[in-house]
Design a protein that fits this description.
Layout (H helix, E strand, L loop, with lengths): L12 E2 L10 E5 L10 H7 L4 E5 L16 H12 L7 E6 L1 H15 L5 E7 L17 H11 L4 H5 L1 H19 L13 E6 L7 H5 L9 E6 L5 H4 L1 H13 L1
Parallel strand pairs: 2-3, 2-4, 4-5, 5-6, 6-7
Antiparallel strand pairs: 1-3
Helix pairs in contact: 2-3
Length: 251
């Protein structure tokens, strides 16, 4: 892996603060409609402890010409294949919202194939995979999809107000919502690594109990951290969330 120091190492990952000699890697999975850039500042905060890979899904920014993937299992398959060459040291996976489900499925694929990979899974702003999805945003007209994005926060309002920019983000947004809203795992589907769940106490999409249900999806240790805030609580609570992640890295 020596010599991989560019910000763009592949279609799938962005390394904003490369740390080739790091003892571990943290892989950050963004939310529906999100991109790797959401985690640029997080990468800076984690860079003293780990090499950070931020996942770049298709159909956005520098991958805008690619079709969106509207199947979460297929998305996990693709990320898993791209991540395997980077698993030369322990991996900690951190996923927010839709990214939590993708990270869970990527972890399952490592374990399915008996490949050394994630040693911990951190899931943020997400109900457990076995919890029913009670939304169908992907079936709404364009304005409804954008309204849901605005309601949850976490997106620059100037972007949503620009017709040209809205047209650019809608394909990826609709594909992401289709992927997560049509996805569900059985309660018997588990990973063998510790799971840390993080959530906001006022998240309109995820109750604390729905976040706590992640416990049934691991055969190892489970921990829950509840922070003040809504679906994008982690924006205001970044320092506290980083402390949770770095505590695992230091351990």
């Amino acid at each position: 892996m020596s010599g991989r120091t560019a910000v763009t190492d592949s279609l799938w990952f962005r390394r904003f603060h490369p740390f080739d000699a790091a003892p571990a890697r943290v892989v950050m999975f963004p939310h529906a409609g999100g991109s790797a850039g959401f985690f640029r500042d997080w990468s800076a905060g984690l860079s003293p402890y780990a090499d950070v890979l931020a996942v770049q899904y298709p159909a956005r920014l520098d991958r805008i010409d690619e079709p969106a993937l509207d199947s979460l299992p297929e998305l996990a398959d693709r990320v898993y294949a791209a991540l395997r060459p980077w698993a030369d040291r322990p991996l900690v996976l951190f996923g927010h919202s839709m990214g939590a489900a993708v990270a869970f499925e990527v972890t399952r694929r490592f374990e399915r194939d008996g490949v050394t990979g994630p040693v911990r899974l951190c899931v943020s702003g997400s109900r457990a995979p076995s919890e029913p999805r009670d939304s169908a945003v992907h079936l709404l007209p364009d304005e409804g999809v954008l309204a849901e994005l605005a309601r949850l926060g976490g997106t620059d309002e100037r972007l949503l107000a620009d017709p040209e920019l809205r047209a650019l983000i809608l394909p990826s947004l609709r594909g992401d919502y289709t992927a997560i809203e049509t996805y569900r795992a059985g309660r018997e589907e588990t990973v063998a690594v510790p799971v840390t769940a993080l959530t906001g106490d006022a998240d309109p999409r995820v109750t604390v109990e729905q976040a706590r249900d992640w416990a049934v999806h691991t055969t190892a240790a489970f921990g829950l951290h509840v922070f003040p805030g809504g679906h994008f609580y982690l924006t205001d609570q970044r320092r506290a969330v980083l402390e949770v992640v770095t505590s695992h890295l230091r351990a």
